[in-house]
Write a structure and sequence with these properties.
The protein has strands spanning 4-13, 18-21, 28-37, 43-50, 56-66, 71-73, 81-83, 88-93, 99-107. It is mostly beta strands and 111 residues long. It has one domain: Sandwich (Jelly Rolls).
Length: 111
């Protein structure tokens, strides 16, 4: 069966958790998360999986520093994060409008 690869781009993330992969309606595999600091000073970032009520279920990373002009690749080396139906992937920065995120995913993985 062919896989449905998808990409989500979220720009100018600020200091409250923002959806970087909206509510999953199936089991999805996150195969890449790249975060770039677009601000003029260092920032720290959080990435979390939340449920439908936006309650944090688990942090993938918390208070990770990204220097000026830098980026952070959160998933690499063939790793994957599975989102189950109803999960959201969310991120925030320590500074307003300072973070761009690209998420690569496989939608509706086989059960």
């Amino acid at each position: 069966m062919a896989q449905d690869f998808e990409r989500t781009i979220t720009q100018n993330i600020d200091t409250s958790l923002a959806d970087i992969r909206a509510t999953s309606n199936s089991d999805d595999a996150i195969v890449g998360i790249r975060m770039a600091n677009i601000h003029t000073s260092q920032i720290t970032v959080d990435v979390a999986i939340t449920n439908d009520g936006n309650t944090v279920q688990a942090y993938l990373i918390k208070d990770a520093p990204i220097p000026v002009g830098g980026a952070l690749e959160l998933i690499d080396g063939g790793s994957k994060i599975i989102l189950q139906s109803g999960d959201k992937l969310r991120a925030k920065s320590s500074v307003t409008n300072s973070l761009d995120v690209v998420v690569s995913a496989v939608d509706t993985i086989s059960e």
